[in-house]
Amino acid sequence: MRILIAAAGSRGDVAPYTGLGAELRRAGHDVALAATDAFEPLVRGAGLEFRSLPGRPRARGGLTDRRALMRSAVAFVTELGHGFADAVAQGTDLLLLSATTAPLGWHVTEATGIPGIGVYLQPTAPTGDFPPVVMGTRSLGRLGNRAAGHLALHMADRVYTRAVTALRHRLDLPPLGPGAMRRRQERADWPVLHGFSTALVPRPADWRPGLEVAGTWWPYLNEGERLPARLEDFLAAGPRPVFVGFGSMAPGEGERLGEIVVRALRAAGLRGVLQAGTAGLTADGGDDVLTVGDVPHALLFPRVAAVVHHAGAGTSAAALRAGVPAVPVPVTADQPFWAGRLAALGAASAPVPFPSLTAERLAEVLGRAVRQQSYTRAAATAARHLAAEDGAGQVLKAVERMAR
């Protein structure tokens, strides 16, 4: 079967699908991954066919105002929609659609008859169990949480209006707004598999049929891949360091953040590995701190004492998988949600909101996270839970049911 996975956004929105795609390819399927051009090396490195989607995702880390985030999202999605049908037209028997691409992909499936399955990295369906992941962590009660969930979907529909209008015109389909199409899919119990662990988000009992939590999809890792020699040397030269990274957040703030982080590490008496990321995180001289580029979290995290991160879904899961405590510093979007979930498990400190990050506060929280064994025990328990899940295997089963 020719399977096309369509994903868009930052690296964390694309990388998990490289591992999922590689598992489907090992099962005998022809797998392509459609993403924006920046991720072509990532996709091809996993042995998958790459198909280009137009658009360049804006760095969310510089946008904390919700109106600015909305404007940025509309611009990106509109650009994305221009070439979405072209990626599908290159030969596809089944579409696997991320939460970002599904509102476009539904219209392509209507026009072509190609079936589709949702493969989401965040829970987007309304539930009484928790508020929408983009609206913070404060519960509004079961009725309030569900009402807020529907409001969040309505806001997302607005992001796609312009792109959907143009796409349906191109596909010679009659006019239909994104909200009406979404409700049509919900009434049909359109299947969605979610690529996160039930350790973090158990399946809500009030979800409609067709919505399932599959387990985490891990970024592709080449069997022969190793950490850089200089990083290996640093790890061997002393006690386990703390990893610090903010992913695609905080562009241009690397120097300021680096100063805060190094001061905190030294005040807590800890070594550190700083991942540059989009922020360009840097550290001053000294043999107690090392700055690195992109390295596989799966190889590094099991060898650190704790992980300080922006609480993106993928990094949150990677820290849990390694069984190490975390200090979440959420910046925007769904990050406060995942930070709260980690803390609720006992595997992370209470979140330190990005605007409140200081060297003094980080040093204090890091000291507790590293030295209080309750955090490590909770992370180890969650790691065992994640190890028992087979997220990619659940998707493969759904694909095979669809093929039959």
Task: Summarize this structure briefly.
This protein is an alpha/beta fold. It is built from 15 helices and 12 strands.
Describe the structure.
The chain is an alpha/beta fold and 404 residues long. It folds into 2 domains: 2-216 and 389-403, Glycogen Phosphorylase B (Rossmann fold, 3-Layer(aba) Sandwich); 229-387, 3-Layer(aba) Sandwich (Rossmann fold), CATH 3.40.50. The protein is built from 15 helices and 12 strands. A 7-stranded parallel β-sheet has the order 3-2-1-4-5-6-7, with helices on both faces. A 5-stranded parallel β-sheet has the order 10-9-8-11-12, sandwiched between helices. Helix 5 links the parallel strand 4 (94-97) and strand 5 (116-120). Helix 9 (254-268) crosses helix 13 (359-371). The radius of gyration is 21 Å and the shape is globular. The N and C termini lie close together (11 Å).
- Considering the protein shown, what is the CATH homologous superfamily of the largest domain? Glycogen Phosphorylase B
Biggest sheet: strand arrangement: 3-2-1-4-5-6-7
CATH architecture of the largest domain: 3-Layer(aba) Sandwich
Low-pLDDT residue intervals, each spanning 5 or more residues: 59-64
Percent helix range: 40-55%
Structural class: alpha/beta
Distance between the termini: 11 Å
Per-chain topology:
Layout: E1 2-6, H1 11-26, E2 30-36, H2 40-45, E3 49-53, H3 66-82, H4 84-89, E4 94-97, H5 102-112, E5 116-120, H6 141-170, H7 178-187, E6 192-194, E7 211-213, H8 229-236, E8 242-245, H9 254-268, E9 272-275, E10 289-292, H10 297-300, E11 306-309, H11 313-322, E12 326-328, H12 335-345, H13 359-371, H14 373-387, H15 391-403
Parallel strand pairs: 1-2, 1-4, 2-3, 4-5, 5-6, 6-7, 8-9, 8-11, 9-10, 11-12
Helix pairs in contact: 1-15, 3-6, 5-6, 9-13, 11-14
